[in-house]
Amino acid sequence: MRHSQLFIQTKKEIPKDAFNISHQYLVRGDFIEQTISGVYRFLPLGFKVHRKIEQIIREEMLNLGAQEVYLPVLQDKKLWLETNRWKTIDPPLFTFKDRHQKETALVPTDEEEMVDIVRKRVKSYQDLPFSLFQIQTKFRNETRATGGLLRLREFVMKDLYSFHHEKKDLVNFYSKVKNSYFQIFKKCGVPAICVEASSGTIGGELSHEFMVVSEIGEDKIFICKKCGFGANMEKVGEIKKCPKCKGILEKKNSIEVGHIFYLGTKYSKVMSANYRSKNGKLKPILMGCYGIGIPRLMATIVEVNHDGKGIIWPKEVAPFQIHLISLPSTKPERVDKVAGRLYRDLQKRGLEVLYDDRKDKSAGEKFADCDLIGIPLRLVVSENTLKQNCLEIKKRSEKKVKLVKINSINSYIRKDS
């Protein structure tokens, strides 16, 4: 993509209502734009990052053997009445009446919808186990939407649901999802830790949250350095000693990036989602559910991967792999010719390149945008580098700048990647 053709308008000013680094940089870099409180537009750069995160998650879900579905955002009130959550869920549902005065709601979570699908299809223990997931828009009627993408009223979420007839099988799958989540967060460049959590409005016998320690985080967790135990405040309250080893607990602010629940029979019982066991008895299906909010994860990536100049995207989620810059010159023809040829060659190799070919911007403006946008590798073609038959190369995560011979660039980038 040529920068001159990219739909983007970076900003120097910090937005008045942006107090978090992720909010500031994502708005200034023109990744996102707020419309109303808790609702954001994802612009071309932001949507590219969003889709990269989606794909990392999707691949991990498929590796678990889960099958992808896509469910409606308009919810059937009757299903929510079955679980008695129509008026009790917190935050409350976004509800409205259609032109026929029929009341419905926008989806905040999909337990009822998933159970309704499954109870129509599962008859026997031989139909179990299996798991279904989706990547779909959710709506949360939050009292206070804050922190840019960290707390939204409309957002895309990956939600996975598993269905079992044996407890040990659910426990085993729950553990596999936990390991899969660690892989997702590692690929996304966030150091998540898993802590015991309260099941909250979703319910169930057991739940764990995946937390990233951060000063701007709204969640409080307790961590034991001695044995590794962790729990959120709702789970253990204000305690000073570890319940596992009696070590001293440290209280930390954190951002929740994922939550998994051992639901057991909480929803299957009340919605009569049963299977017939080997001995012919009807039993409620055992369930687990497992969620990741994608915009919040995107914001958390920025919170832990930035410096004073802008974002430092991990290469797996970066909007582009390479930021190629041609600098203003007294001999622009040669600089443009070399940069243009390099741009085409890199694209032919299947690399994602943002080529800053703008003629009306100074070197300083181009470098400032490059640092703000945060693409992992910067290549610079200038009159000075060409005098040495070289290109300037710099990783966004490092301060060191290297000169590499033009005819060696392909092998260098292959080695670097």
> How many β-strand stretches?
21
Mind telling me the CATH superfamily name of the largest domain? Bira Bifunctional Protein, Domain 2
Largest pleated sheet: 9 strands, mixed
The third-level CATH topology of the largest domain is BirA Bifunctional Protein, domain 2
Mean pLDDT: 95
Tell the overall outline. Answer: elongated
The Cα radius of gyration reads 25 Å
Unreliable parts: none
Q: What share of residues is helical?
A: 25-40%
CATH class of the largest domain: Alpha Beta
Q: Would you identify the CATH architecture of the largest domain?
A: 2-Layer Sandwich
Distance between the termini: 20 Å
| H/I helix tally | 12
- Domain count: the total is 2
SS strand fraction: 25-35%
Name the structural class: alpha+beta
What does this entry look like structurally?
α1 (21-28) crosses α8 (294-304), α2 (44-63) packs antiparallel against α5 (167-187) and α2 packs across α8. The two termini are 20 Å apart. The protein has 417 residues and is an alpha+beta fold. The chain has helices at 21-28, 44-63, 77-82, 111-119, 167-187, 233-236, 266-270, 294-304, 332-348, 363-373, 383-387, 409-416, and strands spanning 32-34, 40-42, 67-68, 74-75, 94-97, 103-106, 130-139, 154-164, 193-196, 206-213, 219-224, 230-232, 249-264, 274-276, 282-284, 286-293, 322-326, 353-356, 377-381, 390-395, 401-405. The strands form five sheets. Strands 3, 7, 8, 9, 10, 11, 12, 13 and 16 form a nine-stranded mixed sheet that branches. The chain has a five-stranded mixed sheet with strand order 18-17-19-20-21, with helices on both faces. It is 30% helix and 28% strand.
